[in-house]
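Intended use. Records such as the NAD-dependent epimerase/dehydratase domain-containing protein entry shown here are meant for training and evaluating sequence-to-structure methods. They are not intended to support clinical decisions.
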Amino acid sequence: MHVFVTGGTGLIGSAVVAELIGHGHTVLSLARSEASAQVAEAAGAEPLRGALADPDILRAGAAQADGVIHLAFANDFSSAEAVAKAVAEESAAIAALGEELIGSDRPFVTVSGTPWVPGRASTEADPPPTDGPVGGRGLAVTAALGLASRGVRSTAVRLPRTVHNQGTGGFAGLLTDIARRSGVSGYPGDGAQRWPAVHALDAAVLFRLALERAPAGSSWHAVADEGDQVRDIAAVIGRRLGLPVESVPAETYGPLGPIFAADQPSSGAHTRQALGWEPKHPRLLEDLENIQP
């Protein structure tokens, strides 16, 4: 397939592009800058200059592709206003891409987060979260899945709180960044809450499988680690950085504080069984050993 990918030069996107090209697909990658275009070309993709906020460019990319994988997100968590802006921008982008694909039976793979369910690990059958700081992402993806009734093979890959590679990425990466700035490797509350995780290279395989074979309207969990306790994550970060490890107020994490403090394990058992997906790369606690002091 010729696949249009948004966010193709990020931590996850670069892994997805390599996975697609390695399995015989060609890639058209949205590039918002000349530097991003050069990265895309170096990876073997054709760049399409434009931004996520430009619906005409998104429609043009989707129009010339056999399938679409949407990964781009602003990832600005500095304030509630910044998060709301990023969610609104992505929601409009998903709507534009979906509209272009209506009636074509082409695959449209979107991304959201694994849900959190009190008292148990969430599964693929649980609805996506639609409340909280990034709840709008769940609403946008739900709308995209609804396009299954309008001739779009839309599917959703739900990513866990940490998608990592070489000790960086996701919520664990944010903990590391905050630890470097504050001098303390912190965790909210007692740190017993659990966060699921997956290696970026394993997640990339699932995106390809979803593109190639997932049925319309389906959701999948890219979960390798069902849930590591946050205090264990912080302990590795503290040891690698030579910093004390201790509980800190949830407010330390700004608008993400409520999410950071929540227990949110997740299962990918159905995904493994149905799509034959099997994570092979290092788990989170092992990968965090790559953090450089």
